[in-house]
Write a structure and sequence with these properties.
Elements: H1 3-24, H2 26-38, H3 50-53, H4 60-85, H5 92-113, H6 119-137, H7 145-162
């Protein structure tokens, strides 16, 4: 991947991050809930909709792997913030890289669930963020189980991204 492709991916990822923030805003969720309640769904009330939630397609496994990594990064973020709040700055770099890792993993997981043509490019572009996160977590794996879980999730996800 050259610099131009990386820049395009980074810009796209930043745009996607903005969309994610809007979609995840509790105020927007509440509005959507009200709008959904106003729609009459009685015509298909007895139908089983569980298949709509299942991820399928060529990137289903990748979506699961990136979602798992994002979840591990979220746990790491919370842990790092707790430690930093005590005045211990030893996890500052870990926090910084976990935030970037979480953002990229959420974006790639969403693209993968959509079976998007952009999934592979974003997955490959996210490797650098996960490598940085894993490198920041590595010194702490013996002391913090959460850092170890994040480190391992990053390694698994890096392997999956490289395999595309």
């Amino acid at each position: 991947m050259n610099r131009r492709e990386f820049a395009r991916s980074a810009i796209g990822l930043a745009s996607l991050g903005s969309l994610i923030a809007v979609a995840d805003d509790p105020r927007n969720v509440a509005k959507a809930e009200k709008a959904k309640a106003a729609v009459d769904h009685s015509a298909h009330a007895g139908m089983d909709h569980s298949a709509h939630r299942a991820v399928s397609g060529r990137y289903a496994a990748l979506a699961a792997t990136f979602s798992d990594c994002a979840a591990a990064a979220e746990d790491c973020i919370a842990h790092c913030q707790t430690v930093l709040a005590t005045g211990d700055k030893s996890l500052a770099e870990c926090l910084k890289t976990a935030l970037a890792c979480d953002t990229t993993c959420v974006a790639v997981a969403r693209l993968a669930r959509l079976d998007s043509e952009f999934t592979a490019g974003f997955a490959k572009a996210s490797i650098a963020a996960m490598e940085a996160c894993a490198a920041a977590c590595k010194p702490h794996v013996e002391h913090h189980a959460i850092c170890k879980a994040c480190y391992e999730a990053c390694g698994k996800t890096i392997s999956a991204a490289k395999a595309i």
